[in-house]
Amino acid sequence: MCCGLFLAVPAAVTAFIAGYFCPRQDALLHGAGQLLQLGADSLGPLAQPLGYAAAGLGWVGALVAFVTVSATGTAIALYGLMSADADLALLLRGRHKPDAFRGKVIWITGASQGIGEALAKYLAGQGARLILSSRSAERLQRVKEACPDPSAVLVLPFDLLGPEADLAAAAAAADGAFGGAGIDFLIHNAGASQHALAAETTGEVAQQLLDINTLAPIRLTQAALPHMLKRGKGRLVVTASMAAKVPSPGQAVYSAAKMAVWGYFGSLATEVADKGISVTVICPGPVGSSSDTPRVLFGPKGKISRLEQQDKRRMAPARAVQLMANAMAAGVEEAWLAKQPVLTMAYLMQYLPLLGWMVLKKVGPGRARALSSGKSGYDVSSMLREQ
Questions:
Q1: InterPro entries from the entry (predicted)?
Q2: Sign of CA pseudo-dihedral 177, 261, 97, 121
Q3: Which of 293, 311, 351, 356 pairs with 156 at a CA distance of 20 to 30 A?
């Protein structure tokens, strides 16, 4: 369909110009009409008559075709945007190849629950050799046993906030795993979210959020990077957040931490681009939970427990994992994973920042209050009603 749009619209313009300025040049008009027909074929049976209109009815038909295809293309683009759950560049790449991860050594932090656990099971099913890390050896063992081939899974528990020596030891163990194969992917997935007003968040909570979300992946990267540089291979994959791209009312410190992650790993990617090391920054929006277990996150003064609300605006964990795997296999530098309205806000902040700021300031106060009180932060109509 996208190819059809790229062919159809320029062809319609060409047909119009040819028909208007060169009415006797039937061959030129017919050629443009044929190109339009080729594009229309990609748009579907309902669009096919557009090509015949441009080829057979002269400039009037070409004008009608141009207007119709342009309107159709705009409608399709808007529908695609509203129904998309990732950035266009990632979606156009499609699903990764079946053997993309076969035999690869993949180290995942935060692998004992949530997205990390789901990602581990998915990659194990793709034939990857896994190194699973978190603080809980018991939970990691449970994830290992749920993988198709537990013998291809190494449990490596440690505390990301522990001493430098512990991180160095973990990095050396990961590099030497599976006969010293080296790390092909290091996925920084550990982290913690926040629901609290900025004015009520204590300095201690702010420090803890920065420690786990920002300093932890940086410190582990510093421990693992020398091994990867020595081998001249490896991809660092960091789970940032859409809060790294769009200011997130009610999650101010969390957003700051994820923006810092985006900045660090984006800068690192440019430093090691000629060393065989690459970086993928994945920015997921809200993702649902596959269990009824309450979610632990930070409130204004410490950790709190909240039951994840079933919200259609949250992406299904299986879909999030699939898109993450697609991004890793494709080797993209950055990927956005989110449903509406978060994805639209990201595009606004990227390309129309003035409009983006206007929208955020309109819904921001209501969203911050909603999150801090345990309500959904993605129900725009409710936020607007609170104004």
A1: KR_dom, NAD(P)-bd_dom_sf, Sc_DH/Rdtase_CS, SDR_fam
A2: positive
A3: 293
- The per-residue pLDDT for 370 is 87
- 269 to each of 280, 331, 334, 372, how far by Cα in Å? 8, 12, 11, 35
**Alpha-carbon dihedral sign for residues 25, 27, 31, 36:** positive
pLDDT tens for 161-218 read 999 999 999 999 999 999 999 999 999 999 999 999 999 999 999 999 999 999 999 9
Quote the distance between the C-alpha of residue 85 and its chain's center. 9
Query: Within a 13 Å sphere around the CA of 35, how many CA atoms are in the beta-carbon half?
Result: 19
Burial class (CB in 10 A: 0-12, 13-18, 19+), 361: exposed
pTM: 0.79
Question: Does residue 378 have an active-site annotation?
Answer: no
d(CA 281, CA 240): 6
**Amino acid 288: pLDDT:** 84
Instruction: Say how far apart CA 7 and CA 180 lie, in whole Å.
Output: 50
pLDDT in tens, 8-19: 444 444 444 433
Distances (CA, A) of 67 to 7, 13, 21, 73, 355: 15, 10, 18, 10, 28
Task: Return phi, psi of residue 169, to 5°.
Answer: -65, -40
